[in-house]
C-alpha cells in the first residue's frame, strides 16, 4: 500500500482533544503516530490538563494559545468542540496534515492486518488524482492496476491530490436521525478501494479521518459552519461537511483532485442519537440549502489560490444564503476572517523560519 | 446481495457468440442462466452451426435473421464481431438485458462463493441510483449501509438506474498498449462495492459484463463506433466505450443513474496484445476526440426520450466530429439508422403482442 516515501518532516498529525485523558487513544495509535510530529489542540471548552503518554513528539495548544492568535473572543472563527482541530491546521507549517477523531482506533483490513492510516493518506495525497474521467477499476496508480480501455491517454498523468477522505468501520458516520432509526446498524464491510471523486460531483466529507495537502487547500479547511446548538458528537456537527464542499469546489476550480475510500479507522461507540435529534435536525435541514449552493458555485478566473477562492465563496454565501438563515451570515464572516488569520499566521511562520 | 425479486419474464440474457462451441461457456453459467431466456446472436462472420448444450431456453439469431431485419447489406449499422450482441438488444422485448462476453466464466467473491452476476445486475437496476451527490459509503440501498451524514434528505429517494456496469477479475479490460506493456498483469482485487457514477462524469463503459434497463436506455445501446481495423478481441474494439458514453449523457439528461462495480466475472486469457497494437492505436487516438465531445455534450429540453437524445447526438457527431475523421461520419449515420430500426422492430413486436 505505502508505495511512497514519507518524509517525517512533511507531516503533522493534528488531534482535536475532546477528552482530557488521551492515554488509550495514543497507545492504540503508537505504532502509526510515533514517528511523526503531533499537534494536539485541546477543546477550549474542556477544563483541566490533558493526559498524554510519553514517547511522542508533540505540541499542545490550549485556550490561551488560541486566544493569543485569534485575539478578541468576538471573532466569528470559533475553535470549540470538533472545530478545535482547525487551529492545528492554522499553526502547522507542514505540507501534509492528517487528522483523526479521538474516539477512533486503528482498524484491521480484510486480511486481519492493522491498517496504517497515515501511510495510506500520504499515498493518496502523493499519487495523482483523476477527477476528469472515472476509472472503473478505481485508483489506477495502485500497484497491480491501471487505466482501463477507453481512458484517454492525455488524462493519464492525472493531477495533484488536495484531499484524502478516509472511511470508518463499526460506527458509521450517519446523521442523528439515521443513527436513531437504526441504532444497531454497524459498518462491517471493508471496501478495498480508493477512488477520485469526479469533478463537479459533491460529497459529504467527514472530518473523522482525513488527510490533506496544506499547501494546496489548507485555507479552504475552514471552521465556518457552526450550528446554533452544535454538540460534542459528530452527528451533531456539520462543520466538516461545509469545509469539505469548500475544498471540493476549489479543487474542481484549480484542477486538483479529492479522493475517497481507504484508509479505514475503527470508530467506537459514543453518545445517544435519540438525545441528539433535537440538535441535528437543524444541520439536516440546512443541507437542503447548502448542497445546491455548492453544486452551482462557479469561481472566477481571477481566483487562482485557495485563499482567493474562499473569499469569493464567502461573498456568494453572503449574497445567496444569508437571506435564508442567520447561520450563513456567520459562516460568511468566518470564511473571510479565517483567510486573514491564515495569511497572518503563515507570514509569521515564514518570518520565523527565515 | 439479491434483495430484489426477479421475474424471469422481465429478463433476457444476450450472448454474442464469437465461437461456434458454446458448451463450456454455457455449462459454466448453467446455475445462473438456466432460469432465464437467452438470446444468442451468432457473429455473422462466423461460419458453421453453434453448439449449445441442452437444458436452456434460448433463441439463436444468425446472419440471415439479421439480414431479414436490417435489409440491405449497405446499412451503416453493422452487427459483426462484438457488435452482434446489439442485434439481441434490438429484438428483445424484455425490460432488462444482461450481456456477458463468451470468454468469461463466473467469478468467486472474497469469501470464495460463486457470484450470481445476473442477480447482482438486476439488483443494481431495480434499486435506485444516486447520481446527484456522492455517498462515501457507496451504494446506500445495500443491506447494512445507508446515506452518510450530510447527504441531503431530498436526494435520498434516488432515481431509476439505466445501466449497471460490472467488472472483471483475472484479465482486466486494458487496451492493447497497456496489455502489451504489462503482459503479466492480472486483476486479483475483489472490491466489494457498487457505486453510482456521478452526473456529468464520464466513464469507459465496458460491454464485457453489463446489465441495462431496455425501456429506459435501450435505444442508446447503439453499435455506432466501428474502427476501420476492428478485431475480434476486446482490446481491438471501442463500440462499447462509445455506446456507454451515449447512455451516460442520456442518463444525465433524463435523470437516470449509471452504476459501476459488482458483479465481477472471471475473464479468461485470449489473444496476443502485441499483435493487436496496430489495430488498437486507432481507437486509442480517437478517444482523445471522443471523450471531450461527450463531456461537453448538452441535450436540448426537447429531447425527452432516449431515441430523441440519440438523434440529437448523431447531429452533433456529424457537425463536430465528422470533420476530424471519416469514422465519425459512419457513427453518426449508424446512430440515426439504429433509432429507425429500433422504432420499426419495437412497433412490430408490440403489434405482435397485441
Automatic annotation (TrEMBL), chains A, B:
> Which residues are listed as membrane-spanning?
none
* Keyword flag Transport: no
Name its cellular compartments.
Golgi apparatus
Sorted keywords for this record are: Cell wall biogenesis/degradation, Golgi apparatus
State the similarity comment. Answer: Belongs to the RGP family.
Q: What is this protein called?
A: Probable UDP-arabinopyranose mutase 5 isoform X1
Q: Lineage, please? A: Eukaryota, Viridiplantae, Streptophyta, Embryophyta, Tracheophyta
Supply the gene name.
LOC113710215
